[in-house]
Write a structure and sequence with these properties.
Blueprint lengths: L3 E6 L5 H12 L4 E6 L10 H9 L14 H4 L4 E4 L2 H10 L7 E3 L17 H29 L1
Parallel strand pairs: 1-2, 1-3, 3-4
Length: 150
């Protein structure tokens, strides 16, 4: 069973913080955090990402960018990334944890969720919708597995 999840994107200021907070809402009993492959360490969530999330009842307050490392990744049961290129990056640079990495959009036909950074608000809205739908699919999948184990 997955008791801890690390959500990963590039900068850790748009997609992964939003995905993290969506999954935290779905799984309040699990350890869920986020990181970036090339993180803007210590930076707050992007203002537009925070505004869009807040409009949907999700707070990104208190988020600070964190760098993805092998040591960090080993602390989690599941690593969810936004794009197939992120999976490849982890396979090449962090092979010891690559077996537990999957797409955040896995349950939506391997959906890749594009980076909205420095793009329009409409793009941020689309990304939020994709993240919310994907988080809901993870909630269904993980809760189904939990019921089957019992």
């Amino acid at each position: 069973m997955f008791d801890s999840i690390l959500v990963v994107c590039i900068g850790n200021i748009c997609r992964s913080p939003t995905g993290e907070r969506l999954l935290r809402r779905a799984f309040p009993d699990k350890k869920i955090d986020s990181a970036g492959l090339v993180a803007l360490v210590g930076k707050e969530a992007d203002a537009t990402a925070a505004e869009v999330a807040a409009a949907h009842g999700i707070s990104l307050e208190g988020h600070r960018g964190k760098k993805f490392t092998s040591q960090l990744a080993r602390q989690y049961d599941l690593i969810l990334v936004m794009e197939k290129s992120h999976l490849e990056h982890i396979k090449r640079g962090y092979p010891e944890v690559s077996g537990k990495a999957m797409l955040f959009g896995h349950w939506q036909d391997q959906l890749e969720i594009a980076d909205p950074y420095k793009k329009s608000r409409e793009m941020f809205e689309l990304v939020y919708k994709q993240l919310a739908q994907s988080a809901a699919r993870w909630e269904l999948a993980l809760n189904k597995n939990r019921k089957e184990i019992r």
